[in-house]
Specification:
The chain is of the alpha/beta class. The chain has 2 domains: 123 residues; 141 residues, Rossmann fold (3-Layer(aba) Sandwich). α9 links the parallel β9 and β10. α1 crosses α9 and α8 packs across α9. The longest helix has 17 residues. It is globular, with a radius of gyration of 19 Å. The model has no long low-confidence stretch (mean pLDDT 87).
Length: 275
């Protein structure tokens, strides 16, 4: 049994699931998810229900049986189980050597933790839970009318009030849009955000979709755009990764998070443009 602790929003949950799924496949065992975080907070909610994932919810007893071994290990008592706590970026290949009966705690924000099962993760993180909202279907049809649809993601929400999180300056988006306009023929931009964004000097090449509340459908729409301008957010990271095409352009911020956590050498897949 592999148990992956899930915390944070949808993008973080996808990273945590993807590593857990990889280790479960490698060890020919089951994956279970520790969802206890979501019973202690109203700020975030578990978000993987719409996806055909291969995992069940871990019981409190199962969590204790694996997670408790961190205390034994600190006391110098060896156990057959493993408690794996992420030690921060960059990618640590030793994690992928973890055997059965492992508990995972961390963000694991790099495709290197699941690159070997890329096609499996793409399939299991494509939503399949019933019809989409009529508004979403309408937007999807609009996106598909353009040869070069570009997703732009603005992350606001908790980023606005948290002084420890880096806020992307307007210049990042201005420069990214200019690059897309230089490199693409007739790009059309679709703006996504967790809050309403006022678009100054509206253009016929910009469709403002900010303020929508259905996270998994927004993520799917972002992935259906051919190109992406992402925020320093795991949500738009997945929108770009799940939307991979042969001639895709992804523009990402060089500075991703906050002071002391700026090492992005493994965060972005090869080929993404960092500015």
């Amino acid at each position: 049994m592999i148990i992956a602790q899930l915390i944070g929003g949808l993008g973080n949950q996808m990273f945590q699931y993807a590593l857990g799924r990889h280790l479960a496949i490698k060890n020919d065992t089951v994956l279970k998810l520790d969802l206890q975080y979501y019973s202690t907070t109203t700020f975030r909610a578990y978000g993987l229900e719409p996806y055909p994932i291969k995992a069940k919810t871990a019981t409190k007893r199962e969590v204790r049986s694996l997670k408790g071994n961190r205390i034994l290990k600190r006391l110098g008592i060896d156990t057959k189980h493993s408690y794996v706590l992420e030690d921060g970026a960059p990618f640590n290949p030793v994690v992928l050597e973890s055997g059965d009966d492992t508990y995972l705690e961390g963000m694991w924000a790099t495709e290197k933790y699941f690159k070997d099962i890329e096609s499996t993760i793409r399939t299991e993180l494509t939503p399949d839970k019933g019809p989409m909202l009529k508004q979403t279907v309408s937007v999807l049809n609009t996106i598909r009318r353009y040869n070069n649809p570009v997703s732009i993601h603005f992350r606001r929400g908790d980023y606005v009030t948290n002084p420890g999180i880096y806020k992307l300056p307007p210049e990042y988006y201005i420069n990214a849009i200019n690059i897309m306009r230089e490199d693409l023929h007739n790009p059309h931009f679709f703006v996504f955000s967790d809050e309403n964004i006022i678009i100054i000097d509206p253009s016929e090449t910009i469709t403002n979709l900010s303020g929508r509340s259905n996270a998994y459908e927004d993520l799917y729409l972002m992935s259906q755009c051919k190109h992406q301008i992402i925020a320093n957010s795991s949500f738009s990271w997945w929108g770009a990764w799940l939307g991979k095409t042969e001639d895709q352009i992804v523009i990402a911020p060089k500075k991703y998070c906050y002071e002391g956590h700026e090492d992005t050498r493994d965060l972005y897949p090869e080929g993404w443009l960092k500015i």
